[in-house]
UniProtKB/TrEMBL annotation:
Residue span of region Disordered: 438-501
Name of the featured protein: Nucleolar protein 56
Superkingdom, taxonomy of origin: Eukaryota
InterPro entries found in the cross-reference section: Nop56/Nop58, NOP58/56_N, Nop_C, Nop_dom, Nop_dom_sf, NOSIC
Biased composition (Basic residues): 461-480, 492-501
Keyword Ribonucleoprotein: yes
Organism: Pichia kluyveri
One GO-annotated biological process of the protein: ribosome biogenesis
Record's GO cellular component terms: box C/D methylation guide snoRNP complex; small-subunit processome
Family matches, as SMART domains: NOSIC
Gene Ontology molecular-function annotations: snoRNA binding
Length: 501
């Protein structure tokens, strides 16, 4: 294997080109003595020599070049440095350039065909030595300059990679839906404890009121049942959706309740816990409203199609809206049913028809035999909606409305047989509703006309070809028949001649 001629060293302060004076061998490169010799400046300086050092003009240029390097691109600045410091050899031999990142190799080769990029173990050892002795090998650098530049570039590079957007940020959706599920579990647990605890004092209340949040509010208002009278009718009615009959029933049951009396200390603890349950329930309502607003902002079409909660669960399970938009429709269909899928594959049973999308109202409306069909169709539309939400600049729910209408039409088609709207017609309708999309509509109409024209031309060519083939077959049959007739006539003549003789 040919040795390394030059080394490209990227660092926060600029680019450095080193010339390799002595070539290392692969054999023995992993030996302890060889590895330790790299840490010795006197030994390492015999291996490499600084050819050129080109510093960056500022932090912005450093960040720009760092982004290019991470994506495997050669910036104009790096291109000019390589062009000036690694001249084309007079002989036909290739120049070997050692680089740290393999992705950068093809880009350099594209601009400089006479350079072969190498990123093997020897190159990495040499670059490690340059990194270790950087301050002494590079000129005009003070102690601590490299550390400060690394820290500044690291922070800037991290900020640029995060790509945070205030308007379209699905991280809050993922956290909100996870917290919503946790709150539902906690509220159910707390409500059960409040009912059990307060039930020793007023057991009949749990049978009259089923809603957990309403029960906690009533506990805070009623407190000791002995104090409840007809004067409290309006207060109780305001807590049970202004149902005066239900409020009167609560008051009547409190008068004849079988519950035991309770001390002030016990009642105070019950009320404290009921107050905490009530506050968590109120926060759950506010969180749900926040999630709805966030979903309509980040994924309006998906929210319109399948609902805010189910859409948020899909985004959370996929990891992000971008990941969801990259999923195939068949994957979206069974998202959330991975255990059932792998169990079915292992046991060679029937695979699941739906995952998280089962909670959609469309699956509930479908008949049992059509649930699998509508789930497949709905997953297809969810995949389209998520891609529109993720990649469109103008966020609106117009496409979601049209896609939802398509799913409803498909449900009606399964029940009545009425033909649903075609996809092309649905997209055209959405573009018309979107406004300012006349160019797209015209282009789609032109493409449709072009397709129709091409189809008609193909059909004409096919008809002509079939007619030609039929005519050829007919001519062959006629020729064959004529030949057979002529053969029979000749035979008849021969027989006549024989009979005369």
């Amino acid at each position: 294997m040919a040795g390394v001629d030059f080394l490209l060293f990227e660092q926060p302060t600029g680019y450095a080109i080193f010339k390799v004076k002595l070539q290392n061998d692969n054999i023995g490169s992993r030996l302890k003595d060889v590895q330790e010799s790299i840490n010795d400046l006197s030994n390492f300086s015999k291996l490499v020599e600084l050819q050129s050092f080109a510093p960056f003009k500022g932090a912005a240029q450093a960040l720009e070049n760092a982004n290019d390097i991470s994506e495997g691109l050669v910036s104009d600045y790096l291109k000019s440095i390589i062009e000036l410091n690694i001249p084309k050899s007079k002989s036909k031999d290739q120049i070997n350039l050692g680089i740290s990142d393999k992705q950068l190799g093809p880009s350099i080769k594209e601009f400089f065909p006479y350079i072969d990029c190498i990123s093997n173990e020897i190159v990495q050892d040499l670059l490690r030595g340059i990194r270790f002795h950087g301050e002494k090998l590079l000129k005009n650098l003070n102690e601590g300059d490299l550390e400060r530049a690394q820290l500044g570039l690291g922070h800037a590079y991290s900020r640029s990679k995060v790509k945070f957007s205030v308007q379209k940020n699905d991280n809050h959706i993922i956290q909100s839906i996870a917290l919503l599920d946790q709150l539902d579990k906690d509220i159910n647990t707390y409500s059960m404890r409040v009912k059990e605890w307060y039930g020793w004092h007023f057991p009949e209340l749990a049978k009259i009121v089923n809603d957990n949040h309403t029960y906690a509010k009533l506990v805070l208002n009623i407190k000791d049942k002995s104090n409840l009278s007809d004067d409290n009718l309006h207060e109780i009615a305001s807590l049970v959706n202004d149902d005066s009959n239900l409020a009167q029933k609560i008051i009547d049951m409190a008068k004849i309740s079988m519950g035991q009396d309770i001390s002030n200390d016990d009642m105070e603890n019950i009320l404290t816990f009921a107050k905490r349950t009530d506050s968590i329930s109120n926060y759950r309502i506010n969180l749900f409203n926040y999630l709805n607003d966030k979903m309509h902002l980040v994924a309006p079409n998906l929210s319109e199609l399948i609902g805010e909660v189910v859409g948020a669960r899909l985004i959370s399970h996929a990891g992000s809206l971008t990941n969801l938009s990259k999923q195939a429709a068949s994957t979206v269909q069974i998202l959330g049913a991975e255990k059932a899928l792998f169990r079915a594959l292992k046991t060679k049973g029937n695979t699941p028809k739906y995952g998280l999308i089962y909670h959609s109202s469309f699956i509930g409306k479908a008949s049992p035999k059509n649930k699998g069909r509508i789930s497949r169709y709905l997953a297809n539309k969810c995949s389209i909606a998520s891609r529109i939400d993720n990649f469109s600049d103008d966020a609106n729910n117009i496409f979601g409305k049209v896609l939802k209408q398509q799913v409803e039409d498909r449900l009606e088609f399964y029940n009545t047989g009425k033909s649903p709207m075609k996809n092309s017609d649905a997209i055209k309708e959405a573009l018309k509703l979107n406004g300012g999309a006349s160019d797209l509509i015209e282009s789609s109409n032109k493409e449709e006309k072009k397709d129709k024209k091409e189809k008609s031309e193909k059909k004409e060519k096919k008809d002509k070809k079939e007619k030609k083939e039929k005519k050829e077959k007919k001519d062959k049959k006629e020729k064959k028949r004529k030949a057979e007739d002529e053969g029979e006539e000749k035979k008849d003549k021969k027989k006549k001649k024989k009979s005369k003789d």
